[in-house]
Amino acid sequence: MATKLKLTLFILLSFGLNDQLYAESVHIAVASNFSATMKVLKIRFEALTGHKVTVSSASTGKLFAQIVHGAPYDIFFSADVARADLLVKKGLAERSSVYAQGQLIYVAKNIEQKNCRASLRMKSNGRLALSNPKTAPYGFAAREVLISLGLWDGLRARIVMGENVLQTYQFVVTGSAQAGFIAKSTTVVSKELADYCQWNVPENLYQPVRQKMVLLNRSEKNTAVREFFRYINSEMAKTIIKENGYIVK
User: Fold this and answer.
1) Could you read off the pLDDT of 39-60 as tens digits, one per residue?
2) 0.70 cut: is pTM over it?
3) Domain count for the chain
4) 75 strand-pairing partners
5) Which domain holds residue 215?
């Protein structure tokens, strides 16, 4: 009987069911702009490994503050480099890697495509949405663009700020704002921007939105966490990230 049991176990392991028997969990903190892409990555990773991935999403600044105050995340997907590097400096993380470069896009409702950029200067264009520059890298980039164009001071009274890029997107598509600066990745999955012109903001108007992930020290020995970190740097994951509107170098 013992021999038969050992043989059965060997067969199960040989067919890869050991992944399920030894499955672990990963808790990831993800900047809002990357949440939709992460859903796809999560599904693929879970199917490949049997590990369970839990995702928490918010603005980069909010997640950073949570981690500093002890939030039990395993990997932090920041929307910038600065906060990821600061966690390393604070001794809370060691392994880090740039996983994507975001692109900023301006959208405006009921404006002809040829007049999209020019609509920024139209007083009749109503409210302008952007993410809070203090907590959201895409908001910081949007402010840089407006300063570069000499429009920041003149438009400040019309600006409505979202806590993160997804809330900013909601301001635009619900009509709370008639135009806004959002992540290009948001437009890839959106079905609500048919009546909006889109201006891909030139990269020379703002600093590159390089997005960095860090593996937090508390989870260094978790096999699933290390596997997920490696997975994000794989060609499979990079293809998914590119398809969702990011630059991967």
Assistant:
1) 999 999 999 999 999 999 999 9
2) yes
3) 2
4) 28, 215
5) 2-101+208-243
